[in-house]
Write a structure and sequence with these properties.
The protein is an alpha/beta fold. The chain has one domain: Thiolase/Chalcone synthase (Peroxisomal Thiolase, Chain A, domain 1, 3-Layer(aba) Sandwich). Helix content is about 35%, strand content about 20%. It contains 13 helices and eleven strands. Helix 1 packs across helix 2, helix 5 packs across helix 10 and helix 6 crosses helix 11. The protein is globular and about 55 Å long.
């Protein structure tokens, strides 16, 4: 599968608040932009893969999206893996293309949790809600505390992730949050669920995003500009709820990365830029270590000492990530990864050999990894 499929086009809406906008309309806008970026005709798309909307899940959502796009795809679906769904859908599309079932797929997402319903994020968590376990943040607070306890990580290790995300988003015209953050401000920010501070938590954002996947052969036939090869992908899923896990820091992200590295024929040492799912700062530290990009317990120290900015040792979330660009679940990270490999990102990293993207859903329940290469 290495390099046999490519991401041929990317597109998105502005991120932030879209009062009164329908989530499907946001997908249509993002898809139109991706089609224009790829330089194709809409009717070339014969696969439509949609990440389920968090704010309002519905039956046959994928078909609603295809109808709004004016398409009758040979293959289509809506998938729920939480925030891991978008990279997973890219891998499923690549497999379908390789199997000859479709030729060109649209992978897309749109939602309005900022101005619509965000109940899914603060719902009670089972019987444990009687003891105060409400919201997505509660599970991550347990993971954050476990990480601090095991490694003795100071708050500045988590703060380094938040501060750099804000710095990367400052000049991004599409970003939801373009407000600078320094370490003192981070340390003074209020607790949401202790030990999680406000700036440890990602945004809730309205917006839409889309990418187009086809075979490398098809991209060459159509002379598409700068298709980015998909070198590898992988998945891993944790079956247990947070409070049932014997080890809160043992995740399936490591297995997801191993699968992707093996397919891509590269290792952590080959990664020149990373777009890591940053729903919370602890997620970034844990994923960097699971991906072999930092020693255990040392991701925060690496961020502080060697830097995670565009000119640092490991450039990270160069458009601002979920903490600053958009709280939408993960496709914006893929788009930034594509732009980095094409060489047209706003904060461009110098000639990365390969880029890695992580997606993650639930409370570190689902993991999906994507490795991108340089265009031919």
């Amino acid at each position: 599968m290495r390099g046999r499929t490519v991401i041929a086009g990317v597109g998105h809406t502005r991120y932030g608040k879209h009062p009164g906008r329908d989530r499907v309309a946001l997908i249509v806008e993002a898809a139109r932009n991706a089609i224009a970026d790829a330089g194709i005709e809409k009717d070339m798309l014969d696969g439509v893969f949609v990440k389920m909307a968090n704010s309002a899940p519905s039956i046959l959502y994928g078909q609603q999206v295809a109808q709004a796009l004016g398409l009758r795809p040979r293959m289509g679906c809506a998938l729920d893996q939480g925030g891991a769904a978008n990279v997973s859908l890219i891998s499923f599309a690549a497999l379908a293309i390789e199997a000859g079932m479709i030729e060109m797929a649209l992978i897309c997402y749109g939602d309005t949790p900022r101005t619509g319903s965000h109940a899914v994020y603060h719902r009670p968590r089972g019987e444990e809600a009687a003891y105060g376990w409400y919201s997505t943040a509660a599970g991550y607070a347990m993971i954050h505390q476990a990480y601090r306890n095991r490694y003795g990580a100071p708050d500045t290790h988590f703060g380094a992730i938040a501060v750099q995300a804000r710095a990367n988003a400052l000049g991004n015209p599409h970003a939801h949050l373009r407000v600078p953050l320094d370490m003192d401000t981070y340390l003074a920010s209020p607790f949401v669920v202790e030990p999680l501070r406000r700036d440890d938590c990602c945004l809730l954002s309205d917006g839409g995003a889309a990418v187009i996947v086809c075979s490398a052969r098809r991209a060459k036939e159509l002379a598409l500009p700068r298709p980015v090869p998909i070198l590898g992908f992988g998945q891993g899923q944790e079956s247990w709820e947070v409070h049932l896990r014997p080890d809160l820091l043992d995740t399936m992200a490591a297995e997801s990365a191993r699968t992707a590295y093996r397919m891509a024929g590269v290792g952590p040492e080959d990664i020149g830029v990373a777009q890591i799912y940053d729903c919370f700062t602890v997620t970034v530290l844990q994923t960097l270590e699971d991906y072999g990009l930092a020693p255990r317990g040392q991701a925060g120290a690496l961020a502080l000492a060697e830097g995670i900015g565009p000119e640092g040792a490991l450039p990270l979330n160069t458009s601002g990530g979920l903490l600053a660009e958009s709280g939408t679940p993960g496709l914006q990270l893929v788009i930034e990864g594509v732009r980095q490999m094409r060489g047209d990102a706003r904060l461009q990293v110098k000639a990365p050999k390969a880029g890695i993207v992580s997606n993650q859903g639930g409370s570190m329940h689902t993991h999906a990894t994507l490795i991108l290469g340089q265009p031919a």
